[in-house]
Design goal:
This protein is an alpha/beta fold. It is built from 20 helices and 24 strands. Among the domains are: about 100 residues, Orthogonal Bundle (Helix Hairpins); about 130 residues, NAD(P)-binding Rossmann-like Domain (Rossmann fold, 3-Layer(aba) Sandwich), CATH 3.40.50; about 130 residues, Rossmann fold (3-Layer(aba) Sandwich), CATH 3.40.50.
Length: about 600
């Protein structure tokens, strides 16, 4: 074993003390100064250079603090020499002290700039995870808050000044909302303590991938054990089934979780053959425009759903909560009972008006439902985890599905799984045969490549879209394109057109998170709307309901007609423009190209 010298041991001890920070260094300096003062005072008294002990001590202390050099008139030579040494030590002390204090202040200011101080708030909202340029979630929370006061804390590994600059330049934050930025690792318990998790009302996990989402939930759970009084709701979206926590754990820990990939795939599949549906999804999920509210309306007790729908102005009856159970798109003959809550689609809570219109154009039609026309060929570019669910959701009346992908084995497996669909794999350089693919297709789906950088994948899809739109214009084709994008800022710069539907993963996740955070009671509603079972959102052609071309209908009349077919009408697409929840007396000149946004089972 090596024997260390006293000098080595002293250096090691000093190094450890210095590493403890500014306060320890100041303490060491203070001890060193007092030691020098006492030593000099002792020498002065021993050599009788001063008669008074206190006077000797005070002179030495004043000399070292002021770094004052004695003159020849101040005393004997010995006294002058000792105080000169003391003054030099004082000069060193002052220089070091100024440097240490300056460094400590700079370090503290840097810490404050980074946002490492503890948030002293209660009943606040904490967003764990943030990406520069992605403001959908925050904007939705601001819209949902209205005029109420609210504190929103954002914690992420991005530097605080960068976050604040991004928010200042891109988000209009009203005076009643305070946004506090904190720099930290959302999976680190110590960093989460800075956000006062134990005092929060709502925790939203907004991380980029499932692993970090789950780690963040586990870190929060550990903090909750330290603070049993914490009852904050945790809201998170995951991509894969394997990352969903067991139902018992979710209920016990007050966690709400939904799968974003299933939602994305469903939206892409339906939008691909039903243009404009992406806008309807956004209208249904965001806090701008029309929203879903549960309300009790005693005046409608005893009414059937059909009659109640005819009486509700500025609002659409989308469901009923009876004895705690929610029924979406209820049968038109269902009677509203006392105590029932109505799920209304309206611009704001209590926006409805009860009127008694005369709807004269309802029962003149022969209510024979006809089948939609064949959907034609769907061409899908790319392969990712969404494709399986997309194929399961593609309408059965699609003629062919052509998949352009290099993942031959995976596509072959999917062909065997979905034998009812006529699936073929396009091999080779599609760039050279893009015109030929356009000749065959009625619908295009562009899937994002998840094996490369998100922005690169978005750019690839936007470039491919531009080529398809160029062919569409040159050949006067009528196909529509559904594009999957990763980032909101990619959508902001992409070309907009009536024949293009964008499904932006970060935006979809933001909408779902905000809805779950603000309306936990809607989990059951959204789960049904975005699952494969029960009622879903559709964009149906007017031909499906035997509506007469160029016939003038009232919107209230259309609602009654659709209820007779077991659909709830939420809006319509006319001349490429979507209109949601208009007034009952709005007159609509029906065209064969028009579509109806409905809630139904198929």
């Amino acid at each position: 074993m090596k024997n260390y010298s006293y000098i080595d041991r002293f250096k090691y001890w000093l190094d450890k003390q210095m590493s403890k920070g500014t306060s320890t260094i100041i303490q060491l300096l203070t001890v060193a100064v007092i030691s020098v003062v006492l030593f000099v005072t002792t020498l002065i008294v021993l050599f009788k250079l001063r008669d008074n002990l206190f006077s000797a001590f005070w002179d030495s202390l004043a000399t070292i603090v002021n770094a004052w050099m004695p003159s020849s008139e101040d005393g004997e030579v010995g006294y002058i020499v000792l105080n000169t040494i003391t003054a030099i030590v004082g000069l060193l002390f002052t220089s070091i002290l100024i440097g240490v204090i300056s460094s400590g202040i700079e370090e503290k200011l840097d810490s404050l700039r980074k946002g490492n101080s503890v948030v002293l708030e209660r009943n606040h909202t904490v967003i764990l995870g943030y990406n520069l340029g992605e403001h959908g979630l925050l904007n939705q929370l601001i819209l949902a808050t209205g005029d109420e006061k609210r504190v929103i804390v954002i914690c992420t590994d991005i530097e605080k000044p960068d976050m604040e600059a991004d928010l200042s330049n891109n988000v209009d934050i009203p005076k009643n909302i305070e946004v506090i930025c904190r720099n930290g690792d959302i999976t680190n318990i110590n960093d989460l303590r800075c956000c006062s998790i134990e005092n929060a009302k709502l925790l939203i996990i907004n991380a980029l991938n499932d692993n970090r989402r789950i780690k963040a939930i586990l870190a929060i759970s550990a903090l909750k054990k330290e603070h049993p009084e914490c009852n904050a709701t945790i809201v998170a979206c995951v991509s894969d089934d394997k990352h969903l926590l067991p139902k018992t754990k979710i209920d016990k820990k007050n966690i709400i979780m939904l799968k974003t990939d299933d939602i994305m795939a469903k939206m892409i599949a339906h939008t691909s053959t039903e243009p404009g549906l992406s806008i309807a999804f956004k209208e249904l999920l965001n806090f701008e425009g029309n929203e879903l509210y549960f309300e009790k309306i005693d005046e409608l007790t005893g009414f059937s759903v059909l009659d109640a729908s005819a009486c509700l102005e500025d609002s659409t009856l989308a469901g009923i909560r009876h004895k705690g159970k929610i029924k979406l798109n209820p049968d038109s003959k269902t009677i509203i009972e006392e105590g029932d809550e109505l799920l209304l689609f309206e611009t704001e809570r209590n926006a409805y008006k009860i009127i008694h219109p005369e709807i004269k154009d309802v029962w003149k039609l022969e209510l024979n439902k006809v089948k939609d026309e064949k959907k034609g060929t769907v061409v899908i570019f790319g392969y990712n985890i969404l494709l399986d669910t997309i194929l399961s959701e593609v309408p059965s009346d699609v003629d062919d599905v052509i998949i352009v992908s290099k993942h031959k084995e995976e596509i072959t497996s999917l062909k065997k799984k979905y034998r009812k669909l006529h699936i073929s794999l396009f091999e080779g350089d599609y760039e050279k045969k893009l015109d030929e693919l356009a000749d065959e297709a009625e619908h295009f789906i562009l899937l994002a490549d998840r094996e490369i950088d998100k922005e690169d994948a978005d750019i690839d899809n936007i470039l491919l879209l531009l080529k398809l739109m160029d062919i569409r214009e040159r050949k006067d084709y009528g196909y529509n394109v559904t594009v999957e994008l990763n980032m909101e800022n990619s959508y902001n710069v992409a070309v907009k057109n009536n024949n293009i539907d964008y499904i932006v993963s970060s935006n979809v996740a933001s909408l779902i998170l905000a809805q779950m955070a603000e309306n936990p009671d809607f989990e059951e509603v959204l789960s049904e709307l975005l699952s494969k079972k029960g009622n879903e959102l559709y964009s149906k052609t007017v031909k499906m309901f035997n509506l007469e071309d160029n016939r003038d209908y009232s919107y209230g009349g259309l609602k009654q007609i659709l209820l007779s077919y077991d659909y709830t009408l939420l809006g319509y697409v006319h001349n490429g423009e979507i209109e949601m929840n208009p007034k009952l007396d709005t007159r609509i000149q029906i065209d064969d190209d028009d579509r109806l946004i409905v809630l139904g089972k198929n």
